[in-house]
Amino acid sequence: MGLGFGIPAVAMAIAVVSFFIGTRLYRHQKPGGSPLARIAQVLVASIRKYDVKVPDDKSLLYEVSDKESAIEGSRKLEHTELLKFFDKAAVETQEEKIQSHVNPWSLSTVTQVEELKSIVRLLPIWATGIIFSTVYSQMSTMFVLQGNTLDPHMGPNFEIPAASLSIFDTISVIVWVPIYDCIIVPLVRKVTGNERGFTQLTRMGIGLFVSMFAMLAAGVLELVRLRLIARHNLYDYKGFLPMSIFWQIPQYFIIGAAEVFTFIGQLEFFYDQAPDAMRSLCSALSLTTVALGNYLSSLLVTIVTSFSTRNGKLGWIPDNLNRGHLDYFYWLLAILSFANFLAYLLIAKAYTYKKAVKVIED
C-alpha cells in the first residue's frame, strides 16, 4: 500500500506547500495567524536553523511567559521528543535574546512547534482512512453496476433503481447509532472503564475491520451471480437476471455499520487530538479522505483495466459484466482493506496522545 513511505511523502508535501506559503507571507504574520501560516513559520524557522543544536534541557526552548500561549484560542502544549528537527525552530539564539521584537519566521514557541508535530502525528491515522473511503465509494460505482444486472422488481408494478439501494446504508447508520450508544457503549464501559466505551482509535479500527466484510459480501454475491449466468448461459443476455437486487442489501448494511465506527470515530479523534486553534483545519483534513478514496478507486479501476485487458482479454470490468470478473475487484479491495487494517494496528499502537500544559492558578 505504500504506507511505509507514503506518510513522509505527505509530510514533505505539506512542508513544501507551507514553505511556499511562508515565502509569500514572510514577515506579514504573527504566531496567532492562520494555521497554515503558523505551520509555515515553524518549517521556515527550523530550516533556517538546521545547523543549530537543540539544548538537552528542553525548558530552555522558547515559550511566552504568559499562562496562555501566544496563539489566540490555544492552550500551551507540552514539549514532546518526537520529530526533534522541528525543535530547532524554538531555539533562541543569542542575537534573538537581545532583540526587542520576535520574528515569527525565525523563532517559534514550543506550542507552535508542537502544533506542527500534532498535525504530522495525525497523518498516518489520516492515511488509513483513504482505503476505507475507497471501499465506501463502491456504493456509488461498482455496487450500482452490479445492481443494474439484477431484478429490480418489488411487486408487479414497481421497480427500485440500483442507485437507490444506498438508502439501506442510511438505514443501517440510523439503526447502528442507537445500538452503539445505548447497548455497545454501556457494555464495553463496564469492561474498559472508559467513559466512551472504546477509545477513538479502537472504534476506528473496528470500522476498518468490519469494512472488509462488505467487500467479501459483494464478492460472494458476484460469484453467485456469475454461476447463475453460467448455469443458464446468460452471458449475452441484456435483461435483468432472475436474481433479486435485494441480495445486495447485506453489503450496503455492512458499510453502514462500518461508517458508525470509523467515520464518526475519525471526526471525534481529529477534533480531540487537533491543537486547540487547528480543530477546524484537522476536521477538514479528516474529510479529505472521502475525496482521496474516490480518486484511489478510479485509479485502481484504471490499473486493473490496463492489467486485465492484456492480450486481447475482456478484463475484470468489461462493458458486459456478465462476461467479466467483478468479484476479482472486490477480492482486491478486501485484501487492501485487510492490509490497511494491519498497518492501522501498528500506527495506532505507536500513537501518542497530545498533552496540554496544566495551568496552575495563583
TrEMBL record:
Molecular function GO terms recorded: transmembrane transporter activity
InterPro entries: MFS_trans_sf, POT_fam
This protein's UniProt keywords: Membrane, Transmembrane, Transmembrane helix
Keyword Transcription: no
Coiled-coil ranges (or none): none
GO cellular component, one term: membrane
Subcellular location: Membrane
Stretches that traverse the bilayer: 6-26, 122-145, 165-188, 208-229, 249-271, 283-308, 328-348
The protein's name: Uncharacterized protein
Source species taxonomy: Eukaryota, Viridiplantae, Streptophyta, Embryophyta, Tracheophyta
